[in-house]
Amino acid sequence: MKIQEIYDYFWDEIDKDLEIQEIEGEDYYNKVVFNAFVRLIDNLLSDKPYDLDLAKTLKSLKRKNDIESIYSLIKREYLYRYVRINVKSIDFPKDLKRIMLIPIRSTIYEMMMGVLATMDCYGEHLVSLYKKDINFITPIDEGRLYDCSAIDNYTIDILDLKSMNLWYDYGEDWIFNITFNKLEYLEEYVPLKILKFRGRGILEDNKHILYDYLNHIDNEYIEEFDLDDYFLDDLEDLNDRAILDYDSLVYSYMGIDRSK
Q1: Gene3D superfamilies, per this entry (predicted)?
Q2: DSSP H helical segments within the chain, as ranges?
Q3: Which end of the chain is more exposed for a tag (fewer CB within 10 A), N or C?
């Protein structure tokens, strides 16, 4: 069985799977999921697969021309396998937290956009991912992604991440610590899922307003921002908004068409 046959079969089956689930941004997710499947198969068929047992199973199925079982195997490993991450704001506001799931095969870029989406970020500012004093990701600046190879080609499982910081908006300095925890499986694919949360999110371009509100400081402009339910948001509504925001952020961050 040629590898191209597997890829052709995968493309048709992914299209069916996502159509059944009526996923928002279906055309884009076809490409996201297909590219992730290709990355996973390429890794498992390489000289240094991340999982030797899985690689042996894949190679055995390939020799048997069992393309349906190959698809089921890869789908389980990518489409329904998630990692639980804890996200919390550093410094301010301290009560802003998320416990969420993201696909284990997400690229670093997709993971970054998922976190931003859950924190109500519009994606109009610089963003980078770093650990200690090392800046892992070159910032996205003024519609230009300077070096996207690392964040587009590395998936979070391959990097074996433990904890990193996401820095958004270098002027207002929204910094989130991301801690990676256990693996879990879901019954259907979603680009992200918030399990628990505290706080609606950031207040884009108005950190001082949120600071005054949370610290009970008089500010005549606070009433313009409808913050009375800041800690009372609904989990289902928050998930729905985050997925829609993710669609927008990951598809075209800062005007960059990432569907190609």
Answers
A1: MM3350-like
A2: 3-21, 26-44, 52-63, 67-78, 108-118, 149-153, 156-159, 207-214, 235-251
A3: C
User: 3-21 and 26-44 helices cross at what angle (nearest 10)?
Assistant: 140
pLDDT tens profile 145-171: 444 555 666 677 766 668 889 989 888
Q: What range defines the domain where residue 243 resides?
A: 82-255
Last residue of a domain, one of 58, 78, 98: 78
Residues forming a β-bridge with 28: none
Mean pLDDT of all residues belonging to the chain? 80
142 and 53 part of one domain: no
pLDDT, tens digit (0-9, with 9 covering 90-100), for 70-86: 888 887 777 778 999 99
Q: Does residue 115 sit in the same domain as residue 72?
A: no
Q: Evaluate whether residue 260 is within a structural domain.
A: no
Q: Is 127 exposed, middle or buried (0-12, 13-18, 19+ CB in 10 A)?
A: buried
Residue 123, sorted as left (phi over 0), alpha (psi -120 to 50) or beta, turns out to be left
